[in-house]
Amino acid sequence: MLAVAGGKGGCGKTTTTVGLATVLAKAGREPLVVDADTDMPNLHHVAGLAHTGGIDSVAAGKQVCQAVRVTDTFPGVRFLTAGERDSLPPALRRAYYWRGPVLVDCQTGIDRRATRPLATADRTLLVSTDRPECRQDTRKTAIAARNLGSNPCGALVRETPVGTVPESVGRSPVIETVPTLEMVRFDDARLIKRWQTVTGRLF
Questions:
Q1: Considering the domain 2-202 in this protein, what is its CATH number?
Q2: Three-state secondary structure along the chain?
Q3: 118, 124 in Cβ contact below 8 A?
Q4: Where are the domains of the chain?
Q5: pLDDT, tens digit, 9 for 90 and up, residues 36-76
Q6: In sequence order, what are the residues at sequence separation of 6 or more whose Cβ sits closer than 8 angstroms to the Cβ of residue 31?
Q7: How many Å apart are CA 46 and CA 43, to the nearest integer?
């Protein structure tokens, strides 16, 4: 299980999670994407799905394979939509045993609620922009991940017009960068190539 985490909202966690899952699906890996943001979930918007069931259904006893959603927009990717805070820990424990790669779109912040997925995931991919303030917050996320046993395995950095791409974020090497785009298209060859670099390193 890979936690996709960062220190600030809008740094690109959801886009990165779905992008990596899209690449894994094209390789026949049957990825599961879990929305672990219980405060401001966004995954269902990106995937074009209703925000019902999902994590709450799994926590209530439904099998993960019965609770997941699929969409023609992202063929081969399974989605588990966000739910109530108390539903997240048991749902993550059950999702851990999914037959393919599990990618968790994490909530921002380092409080107990936000870091719950880091206690279940095997490792963490840090997502940040190249702006100093975002990198600083992501360093805090890296510390939380290490403390909870989900060691950061690398970072993906979104380039901005006024930032400088570092060699590492939170003591984790930058695996790849992506440009800031006015509109993200998941069939954009530039993005796919960079997501492939990340999945090649991590999976």
A1: 3.40.50.300
A2: CEEEECCCCCCCHHHHHHHHHHHHHHCCCCCEEEECCCCCCCHHHHHCCCCCCCHHHHHCCCCHHHHCECCCCCCCCEEECCCCHHHHHHHHHHHCCCCCCEEEECCCCCCCCCCHHHHCCCEEEEEEECCHHHHHHHHHHHHHHHHCCCCEEEEEEEECCCCCCCCEECCEEEEEEEECCCCCCCCCHHHHHHHHHHHHHHC
A3: yes
A4: 2-202
A5: 999 999 999 999 998 888 999 999 999 999 999 999 999 99
A6: 20, 21, 24, 25, 76, 77, 78, 100, 101, 102, 103
A7: 5
Residues whose CB falls within 8 Å of the CB of residue 13, separated by 6 or more in sequence, listed in order:
4, 5, 6, 105, 106, 108, 127
Is the pTM here over 0.70, yes or no?
A: yes
CA distance 82 to 117: 12
Q: Check: CB of residue 43 under 8 Å from CB of residue 105.
A: yes
Residue 176: both structure tokens together: 């790849």
